[in-house]
Amino acid sequence: MKNIILLCLILSFTTLFAQVGVGTTDPKATLDIEGNPTVTTQTDGIIPPRISRSALINKTGYGADQEGTIIYVTNLSGVNNAQTNNITKIGYYYFDGTVWNSMTFDKDYGDIKQGFQTSDHNGWVLLDGRAVTSLTASQITRAISLGFGTNLPDATNAFLVQNGTGLGSVSSSNTKTITQANLPNYNLPAGTTSSDGLHSHTNNVTNTPGNFTLLRLSITGQSVTGEFFDQPGSGFEPNIFNNTGTLTIDDGGDHSHSVNVSSGGSGTGFDITPRSLSVNTFIFLGN
Hints:
Elements: H1 2-18, E1 20-22, E2 31-33, E3 50-51, H2 53-58, E4 70-73, E5 91-95, E6 100-102, E7 112-115, E8 124-126, H3 137-145, E9 175-176, E10 212-220, E11 223-230, E12 243-245, E13 270-271, E14 280-284
Parallel strand pairs: 1-2, 3-4
Antiparallel strand pairs: 4-5, 5-6, 7-14, 8-14, 9-13, 10-11, 11-12
């Protein structure tokens, strides 16, 4: 009889430790805690071990066997060691077998991230320029509160920058066309042009006295001398050489030529996009 009672006790403890219920006689997991939500004076919930950072720093027993341990750090006293280096604020932490990690994922509506995901996920919405009305009702409310009235910004081929313009606005482009004012203030090296280029002058020649025929013209610097001979029947002695007269050439004096030099360009814009890694940009709007 005693053996039967002992066997029953052993079986009972085996069942008890297989699944434990708190507040319930029918646990659905290894540990099933059921609160009393209708009892307003009773505070439901689970409180893990609460410990200061300095006390946690002094503990040396955490290793691979404690992987998955959860605690709540109450203050940031003490100087961190290798295990507690990630404890930088009050809150919940879990032990991964090597170090303590925060259980809080800090994000707010309107936060931006970039990643290799190709579509919306976990409340993160792809910035692809779509209509705000295509989002869920709660996302629409949050998008409007952030200033997106009609469409989400389109982050395609755009870089994030804080430039003082409207948040979410997309401006400028990745190509640029320079003007003359953009060229450096630089004098080109001296060059040489032909002084006898193809051109012509109209000259008026006057000889004095009249009825002389020009035989020879001599130009030295700015001095012009002509040699003439008498025309027959002019009343002068015929065929007399080396008579001289005054010769005037009207060449307009000093003058210049205008030259147009073509750059050979066509004003085509050039790409100013730097070397880049292609990712997608998302905004957190929740679900």
